[in-house]
Amino acid sequence: MCRQQSILQEGFLLYQNDKHHFTRNHNGIINMGTSENKLCYDLLSKRLMQADMLHMDPALLEYPDWKGHSFLREEVASFLTEYCKAPSPLEAENVVVMNGCSSLFSSIAAVTCDPGDAILVPTPFYGAIREDVALYSGVRLVHTHLDCQPGGGDDRPFLLTVEKLEKSMEQAKAEGVRVRAVIFVNPHNPLGEIYSAEEMTAFLEFAKRNELHAIVDEVYMLSVFDESASFQSVLSFDRLPDVQRTHVMWGMSKDFAAAGLRMGVVYSQNQDFVLALAQLAFCHGIPGPSQHQVAQLLRDRDWVSREFLPQNRARMEAAHRYVSGALRGLGIPYLHRSSGFYIWADFRKALSEQSFLAERKLWQCFIRHKVLVSPGEAFSCATPGWFRIIFTDQEERLQLGMQRLRKALEELGRVSGQGAENGDEKAGLQSTADEAEPKRDGHGPLRPPPPSPPALPPHWLMRISSHWTSRPLSPPLAPPWTL
Amino acid sequence: MCRQQSILQEGFLLYQNDKHHFTRNHNGIINMGTSENKLCYDLLSKRLMQADMLHMDPALLEYPDWKGHSFLREEVASFLTEYCKAPSPLEAENVVVMNGCSSLFSSIAAVTCDPGDAILVPTPFYGAIREDVALYSGVRLVHTHLDCQPGGGDDRPFLLTVEKLEKSMEQAKAEGVRVRAVIFVNPHNPLGEIYSAEEMTAFLEFAKRNELHAIVDEVYMLSVFDESASFQSVLSFDRLPDVQRTHVMWGMSKDFAAAGLRMGVVYSQNQDFVLALAQLAFCHGIPGPSQHQVAQLLRDRDWVSREFLPQNRARMEAAHRYVSGALRGLGIPYLHRSSGFYIWADFRKALSEQSFLAERKLWQCFIRHKVLVSPGEAFSCATPGWFRIIFTDQEERLQLGMQRLRKALEELGRVSGQGAENGDEKAGLQSTADEAEPKRDGHGPLRPPPPSPPALPPHWLMRISSHWTSRPLSPPLAPPWTL
Lengths: 483, 483
Known about the structure:
Chain A is α/β, with parallel strands linked by helices. Chain A is built from 15 helices and 14 strands. Chains A and B meet through helix 1, helix 2, helix 3, helix 5 and helix 6 of A and helix 1, helix 2, helix 3, helix 5 and helix 6 of B.
């Protein structure tokens, strides 16, 4: 079997072999490419070190129910009932737990499709899904490409509409491709878009009309860091258009900032689907003691609701404020959203030409400057030049990462003194422009992140536009919808 | 994708839905079908509840090196160096860790074969491998069938020889099947056979001659319960015939009696192989905290060598003595071996006819009597009537399981008062023939197993034959090599 390495994998491996560390490897790669939240180690470590985490029971050492121990599935059902605001209690028998959402995507593709079938996905999309769905049975993706230019009555760039979905379905049919499912990621990765209940209902109606399984990926549902933004899980809906074909994914990697715990779940009322997944789950099991730990985390609502979630949101908002401000300082336009760990940013002005080859070269240039971000090609974005920047990291690393991005752009002559018109913003970056180690002690990863949001100029809180912010200055590639 | 449920899976699911419990579900299924060691919960629980198991580090909560954290791979290399008696230190870079050996078999098949290729396996073999290797790329198995009748100079039933391997290779070639690898399980499952260093060297030479990857599964290497038996890991060899094509598997499920910890490893000096596996490992990752726990277990040599291994062996030997004695009491011949969790037993005399349909019916009859064992068909045994009986369980459950087997056979008229000639053995079974709850309190699974081997009549220690034991009495289907 030959398996091609994706750009995301390539970047992750480069980082793995040369991780930045403030004392041990200061010239290592700063990872602003992998979607992880590194803001809450202190909270998680403290909770995971409590005595209730150490528990043993013979069942934890035996071969488990492959779809997850019943105690964990019950806890997941109860947790989702509360945090998704389900109209009636969700049930453990509808829950399947696997070691991460990649395993779930692989298995869901295998049980909903035959080899050669396809799954529809609005694009740009989280690119790792391509390898996931291909893994077991060669399922491929069909794209609904979203345009970065708003137009035709759209007021949002990359707007997803039912019309666009229908059009790509028609095209797939015309090409003889059998589409069996559609993936909706909400909040969206990499766009950060939150689809409203009305939008999601319309998308699910589309799926029903076309007899598609709707795979609704809500792994960022609790990672909405702006209180004015509103997210509604489809599990909160009183009625789902096609309940037997709607399968909702969630996990610990994003909303609990714990990718290392390796736990993804899917909720589906379709028992055939659940049983089919259970048959593939023997290769995706989670150790019993870890299942206990995750159940304990989910059970501790007091800690989740009063400590972890509010602090996580505050830290995310501060970090987002910092990186978005730094991007404005660089004159890089970006999509201003309130969820996820990332900012979808428009580096088109930094390309030598408008091609994916040039995008790849820019990505390599960033890596030479020891900062990893993810190029739009990895998300199958139709337009070259977009990058996903992860902002959920400690202040010092974000500073260093943004300095390195600036240096790379300066080397290319794509940013200059006039790179930001706002004097304060420029000053904000200038204050950290020296790549020397920030004057703090104990920068190792074991050190908890700063307890309060980093002090940033208050005007960075300001929304410049509901969708876009920053004024790209030179070269004159500013899209018309920026300021 | 359509995936057929195997007999082993079917049995396991039946058990999962109706588990025996002494107080909560006394009429539930006794599982003597799934290869687990339930003799050491007390030792493991005590060790896994020690404070060093509770540890946190940011890296444990991040996306890991998919082939395992380096601290764990280093510990595995060091452990295998010592317990396999490697002539020089094994290296962490040659180790890949995944969530269990099924994941490893799936991934190894995918990286050594193209779709449609085949892997050779001496048969009977651990049947789950069939589904494992088919999972990713439709790899199938080619069998070297071993005959239950010794003959042609053989003195061991089911004897594996190079001649038989060569013959099946020739046959595969003649049929246009491309064989890319061969699996050697040592100690063998389900036979319990231990292949000597000379035999293994000859098998590896065969693999080299035929340019086959040799997948050497040594997951039972520390589960040899008779001190007079000698096992040698191929990792102890001064020279391997084809070092780049030899890959050794091991894990925690069997030798650490901890299938629930979900950890399998493969050791290979072929770096292309290691890198290829690493690319598939994103779907088979283990939670960081579990990796820490396993590393702590492996690191604690004092506990492993002075406490766990000797006690485990003593308990295994006692349990083996009990079940083999009970089989003798039933007049069921079996292969007398000194490793593994199972006894490979010959129930041919209990079949209504010599067919796999009759074998399946007997299996179903056992299940109706609420005892799960594994029929030979699940291991692709060429001759119907053989069953694998797991003996590594607590005394009370073994007693109940053997009573239920006896009742099933009695119902079929395949065992009677004259079922055992040895009065003491018969008395031994008679003493537990009443299926009422044994007169002990606290039979729940949380209760630790008895601290010392169960008191069994001393003559049960006796080896009746080096290969076979028991005298099958009636009906007269006794194979000629029994007593």
